[in-house]
Amino acid sequence: MIDHIAIQVASVAASADFYDRVLAPLGGERTKEFGEFISFGTTGHTLWLVPATEEGPAREVHLAFAADGRAAVDAFHAAAVAAGAESLHAPRLWPEYHASYYGAFVRDPDGNNIEAVCHTP
């Protein structure tokens, strides 16, 4: 349903470095650089990083990225922690969502809640 989303970040370069590292285990990579904007995706330009336009903290965004297996969720979490992200929730099953929901949650450099999730058993 979502074609693309853009999030404002304090430093496009720092955030792009973070997303280079944490999206790689999920098959994501930089797909375009357009002026100061940088996009990521597996196909197309799903996630755009754009410079913040106002002073002060941005409102938290929650982004969940699809993983093709539980090992990819584990690798996402490991890459994020290695990149300096705060771990909000280590990889585990979340049966309160559904029986096969396996996810991990971290904070990106701008305080956003970033998740990798696999829905298959």
From TrEMBL:
This is Putative glyoxalase/bleomycin resistance protein. It holds the Pfam family Glyoxalase. InterPro entries: Glyas_Bleomycin-R_OHBP_Dase (IPR029068), Glyas_Fos-R_dOase_dom (IPR004360), VOC_core (IPR037523). Residues 1-119 form the VOC domain.
